[in-house]
Amino acid sequence: MMTAETLPLPSSGRQAGALSSELIEDGACFHCAEPIPAGLDLTVSYRNEARPVCCTGCQAVAELIISGGQGDYYEYRDSPAARPELAADATDWQAFDGQESVDKDGLAEATIWIDGIHCGACGWLIETHLSAIPGVKSVGVDQQTGITHLRWSSEYVQQSMLLEAIAALGYQPHPLSGSELDESLARERAAFLKQLAVAGLGMMQVSMFAIGTYFGPENGMDPAVERLLYLVSMLVAAPVVFYSGVSFFAGAVRALKVRQLNMDVPVSIALLLAFGASAVNFFRGEGPMYFESATMFVFLLLAARFIAMGVRHKAVDAQRALLPMLPDAVIKIVEDGPAGQEVSIPRASLQPGDLIRVRPGDAIAADGIIESGATTINEALMTGESRPRAGHVGEPVLAGSGNIDGSITVRITRAGKDCTLSQAADLLNRARLSRPRQVLTANRVSSVFVACLLVVATAVFFYWLPKGFEHAFSATLAVLVVTCPCALSLAIPAALSAATTRLARDGLLVSRLDALEVLPRISCALIDKTGTLSEGRPGISAVRLNASHPNAVDKATLLDWMAALEKHSNHPLAAAFRDLRTATQAEAVSAFAGQGLTGRIEGRSLKLGSAAFTGDASQADEPLILADEAGVLGWVEVVDPWREDTVTTLRGLAAAGVRTVIASGDHDQRVQQAAAELGISFAAGELKPDQKLELLRRLQSEGETVLALGDGVNDSGLLGGADVSVAMAEGADLATAGADVVLTGRRLGPLLMLLTAAHRCRTIVRQNLSWAVAYNVVAVPFAAAGLIGPGLAALGMSASSLVVILNAARLAKMGLRKDLAPAGDAKERSGEPQPQPA
Amino acid sequence: MKILFLLIPLSLILLSVAIWGFFWMVRHRQFEDMDAAAWRILTDDVAPEDRQSHE
Fold it and tell me: Do B36 and A120 touch (CB under 8 A)?
C-alpha cells in the first residue's frame, strides 16, 4: 500500500497555493498558524516530529486529525485552519436526534451546513473523518457552499454524534430545517450548466460545419452538400440561441418592461438579427449565413456570466447567512408539564409565547422579553453599538444578541422569519430589488449603435428598392449580418471578466459585473465605523500602573493576570486580552453580571472591572481596573483601533475626489469623535438599518453616486441600496451576501485598487468599443454595396472579436499595487450642502 | 461525397447523445463539487481490512 510519504508527488504537482506542513513558520501554530504565546509548551506529534501548537483547542483538533489517519490534510490545505472555538457541548445537538427523515433504504438522512470550510482539503477531511464512523453510509460535502448531505443507519449512530464529530474537527455544523434548505442556487447552477453545455457543444458542431461551407460550390462542392451543411447548422444553432440564450431575451424583456436598457437588450437584438437573417437567407436560398457567429456569441457570453454566478453563489444567500448568529438548539421551559422542566429543542420549532432559558455566553434565538434574571446584552450585531448594555426583567431582547454573563429566561414574541434579524435580511432583499439601475455608458453606446444600424439598414433597403424587392432585401441582410455586433457586445463582458479575474488575485471578489462600470463614477463613499474603519474588536491602547500600591506588579504581570481572568469571561472587552494567550491559570473565578470578575492568582484575591466594581473613584472615563485586597494595581484603556491602513485609504479616496461620509449605529458622540480624528467632515451616528438606507437615498437624490462599505447586519440595507456596495469578508455573512464586491483580508487598501482597476477597465472598454464601432463603420459601406463575400465577412468578424478579447486580456495582467491612488477624472466639489442626519 | 448525407445526420445523433449524457450527469449532481475529486485522488482510501469492518 502506498502511503502519502511515498506518493510520487513532485512539489510542482501540488495544487497551486497549497500550504504544506513545511511552510508553517517557526513560532506559529501548526494547526492555525497564529503566533504561539511565549512560555507555552504544547505540541502534537506529526510524522514522528513534535510540532508546536498555540492552545489546547488546536492541540485537540490536530491530534484528532492525525490519529484518525487524515494527517495529509496538513499537506494539501491551502490556508491555515480557523482557531477552534471552545469545544461544542454535545447535549446541544441532542435536540436533533430523531428529527431526521428516513429514505427508502431505511437510512436516516439530513442536510447540514458546515461553516468554516475554506478549501478542498477541508471537504476531504470531513468526508474521510465521518466515513470512518461506523454506521455512516455516505457523506457529500459541497466545499463551495458548505452544504453537506449525510446518510447513516440510526441503529449505530445518532445525528448528535455526527454533529459533534464535525465540531471536534474545528468546524461549525448547523442543521438546516425545511425553510432554510434553499435549493434554488443549486437549481440555478444546474440549469446554467445545461445551457452552457448545449451552447458549447453546439458551437463546436456549427463551427465545424461552417469550415466546410467556406469552400463552397465554386470550389467544386456539391450544392446539395452545402445546403445540407447549412440546414444542419441551422438545426443545431436554433437550440443554442433559443434554449441557451433564453436568459438574454428574458433579461431584455424585463428591462424594456420598465423602460430601461441593460446589456441584454443589444445582445438580444444582435442574436435575433444574426440568427433571423441567416434563417431567412437559408430559406431564400441565397445570401450569407452566420450561424457559427451566433452560437459562438452565446457561448462566450454565457461562459463569462457563469463565472460571475460562481462568485455570487459563494456569497451565501441571505437567510442562511443568519445561521451562525443564532443557536441551533434552544432550551425550552415546559410550562404545562412538571414545573420547571427544561427540554432542548431545535430553534426552527420555536413558537411565539414559548419561554426559553438563555445561558451566559449563548446567543438569543428569537425576539422576546426578559421574564427573569439580569444580565448584560451585546447588541453590536443589530445596532452597531460597540458597548454592551444591561438587560433587566421586562426589557425586550433581539434575536442574534449575545447574552454575556447572566442566566435569563425569555418569553418569545417573534420567532423564525418574523424576528428583527430575519427582517434585516428582508430589508436587504427589498433594497436590492429597488436599487436605482444605472444606464451604463457601454450599454448606451451599444443601444445607440443598434439604433443607427437599424436606420442604416432601412436606408439601404429603400435605396435598393427601385432595383427590385429581392435585391434590396439581400443588401439589407448583408448589412445586418456583417455588422452583427459581435465585437461590440464582447467588448464589455470580455473586459469585465478579465478585470474580475485580476481583482480576485488581490482578494477582491466581484459578484456583480456591472459594479466595475459604475465604480469610476463614484462621488461619495458611505462607510460604517465599527468593524469597517475600525478593526471591530477591542485592543489595548494604554496601560498605567499604580506605583503607590504596596505590592506593585510590572506591566507584563498586570496584563497577564487580567488576561487570565478574562479567559473566563464572555464580555466583548475580553477579546482584547485573547491575543495575549496567557498560560497563567486563575482560580475561583466568578463573574458578576454587568460589573466584572473576581478570582485568585498567586494567592492574591483580584477584582477586575469598572471603577464602581473595584472601588476606585479616581477614574471618570471607565477604563478596566485590576485591584487586589490592598488597592488598585493598574488601569488599562481598551479601544477599538483603526485598521492599519484606514487613514491612508481615506486619504486615497479624498485624492480620487470621493467624499467620505460615516454612517454608524454607534453612539453619536463616539461617531463624531471618530470623524474628527479621521478628518471626515460629515458623520451620522445612532442610525438604525433603515435610517442608514434613508441617508443613502438622500445622498443619491442629491445626485451623488454612492459606494457603501460595511460589515454588519445593520449595514445590509445600506449595502443593498447603494450604487456599488463593498463588504468586509470578515463581517456578517448577511452583509457579504448583499455586496457587489467582497473585500477579503483585514485591510481597507484594496478599495483603492478596486477604483484603479475600474478606471483601467473603463479605458479598455472604451478602446474596445471604439475599435468595434470603427470596424463596423468601415465594413458596413462595403456590405451595403454588396462587395463583401461570406468568407471575408467571417474572417473580418473573427479578427475583430479576437482583437477585442486580446485587448481585454491585458486587464488580467495589470499591476495595481504601484499606483494605488486612482487617476480619476474627479470633479471639483466645493460649497455643496451637507445633508443632516436622520 | 454522398456518404455525407449519412454521416452528418449520424453526427447529430451523437451530439444529442452527448447532450443527453451531460444532462443526466447534471441531474445526478455530478457537477456540484468540482474540487473534491482532485483531493480524493491524492490520498489513500481507508485500508481494505478497515473497510470490511464497517460495511
Answer: yes
